[in-house]
């Protein structure tokens, strides 16, 4: 046997399958793995020499983590200066070797050519900079190919983006010809290598679509053998009804179902994981292909405009801004939050403005970290008026954090055998992003494995690697076996922990010793090496 490019010696191999860890050495040649018995590659052996050796004594060697739910579609396109170097590197520093973006129905593609200029403005608001909009997956991948990255990126096709790229941001059903065009664009993107179809049925313009429209699109994903991935239409008081809609879409379309960041949020839904999780388990027992993902926090993050009723966003940013400037329209929004709107999740109505804090408002940094209720009290104003004024002043570019869940529900989902791990990271420049973008995976390993014993180490690693890779078609990834892609993490199980907080959200974790992507060491002793072997994966 010839020498290795890299040899990881004397670690505990946790291979991503869920099987018990075992001592082993791992060799890497030309970006592929060879698993060796302990000591099979003795130091100084000519047959097993290596250009670089990593000593993993006392540490775990696992497959690289797969973050199944991100909104990192455009952060590297902004560059280290535009995106912020800490923001760009946060994911790989926590051991993520593949990110899956295009979630919640939102992405950077596809669109009809005539819609691309209008969509650029919308993507700027969603992703925090001029990241562009693209006709299809191939052009999206080509744009990323020109920007070096440390880890890999795969992308779903966002239903909301698809709808906006054909219809525009309008509140009406798709006409038959428009739906055929949407299906054709989706089909082309999936054929080019996109990972599946995502919906965000709480968010406009995806929320304007009925079930039949989504069924037609999910059927296209099913023909490609790719999943239907959904942010449910309601994760709060109507979460069970929304889950049943997702089940119907899966059954009618034939697509495998994956429920994004499963939660039961808001005071009227706390505890309902005691009903939703048994329902998913029963569906699986009946033979349905259904899974979910979860992040290990009781707070979520999204756009401030999503706190407003869907009709407020009809027509896009310009129409929203005009409505926010009209006192009568503001009063209508206030009533909608107080009374509810049929079919609308109504985050504020289910929780309150005191649970909504500003994460990023680039022109008003003094608001960041404060709740809308607190800002309103300080100004002697109504919270809806404070939110509306901030949205207008920021041209819609306001991200919030919603403290809407309880720990018991988070733990139940984490422990579910079909739940994998996704950060739901929203890496927009500036402000105080949710710490999950820098801390999700070490938090699971440190808090929920080592400290609380909620999960076995091998079980947690499986959720982060092999289970995730199998769901999203990442062939040859997520497991350590001979011939697999050399995407690897070396971490200390005794010290691994998240350090990112809501006040300092990009602090890198403790205990991540090395990260290997495509056979190259991209993180050593918790610091980036500067290697950039990552690429966009066509699946």
UniProtKB/TrEMBL annotation:
<dbReference type="Pfam" id="PF07969">
    <property type="entry name" value="Amidohydro_3"/>
</dbReference>
<dbReference type="InterPro" id="IPR050378">
    <property type="entry name" value="Metallo-dep_Hydrolases_sf"/>
</dbReference>
<feature type="domain" description="Amidohydrolase 3">
    <location>
        <begin position="52"/>
        <end position="523"/>
    </location>
</feature>
<dbReference type="InterPro" id="IPR032466">
    <property type="entry name" value="Metal_Hydrolase"/>
</dbReference>
<dbReference type="InterPro" id="IPR013108">
    <property type="entry name" value="Amidohydro_3"/>
</dbReference>
<dbReference type="InterPro" id="IPR011059">
    <property type="entry name" value="Metal-dep_hydrolase_composite"/>
</dbReference>
<dbReference type="InterPro" id="IPR023100">
    <property type="entry name" value="D-aminoacylase_insert_dom_sf"/>
</dbReference>
<protein>
    <submittedName>
        <fullName>D-aminoacylase</fullName>
    </submittedName>
</protein>
